User: What shape does this take?
Amino acid sequence: MVKKIKQLRAVSNQIEHPISNDTLNNTPGKDFEITSIPEPHEIEVLNRPGPLIRRLHQIAVSVFLSQGKEFELTPVQYGSIQLVDMYPGIHQAGLGKMLGLDRQTISNVVQRLSDKGLLIKKEKDARSSALYASGSAKALIQVMRERLAEVDSIILEPLSTNEASTFMRLLHKLVDTNNELSRAPTSGPNGVVESRSTVPVKKRASKK
Assistant: This one.
């Protein structure tokens, strides 16, 4: 820590407004008066791609939870049962790769869904289990399918139909191109990296 502080001091001496020793030592400095408060869109650190994507993710999760609150299900949990229903018998590791989750996280997700009676685990061998969606999971998927359309509509509501289509196309491009930069890159059920097809955007009245 001391070494890092010294490095910061060295850098601060080279910039126009050096950092005070009080700030670097985390001790109270002189009182100062805030002359103006910037708007959120004027704060650089909040307007980079990372923070904006994180904020949009928070909004998307909140909208999803509001649509399925009685089921106490997270987006990742719903995605899990839907994929297991699409690929019956998939093993846990394969499911984790499709969702971009590390081993410990997907293990926790599968265990919670199993405890809820939504996933059925059948041992393949001593090291892996085949996963299947239960009858309750299949029913839940049908109920949530219509609600997910509403989730998408709410999230994309500020955009025109053309803007929403362009946004989805660029979103897929960013995710696909940067997939390998992730700590847990996604792949298909057999470990093959697959490009995502564009999700159709529900048509809404055009906005001027």
Summary: Residues 197-208 have pLDDT under 50 and may be disordered.
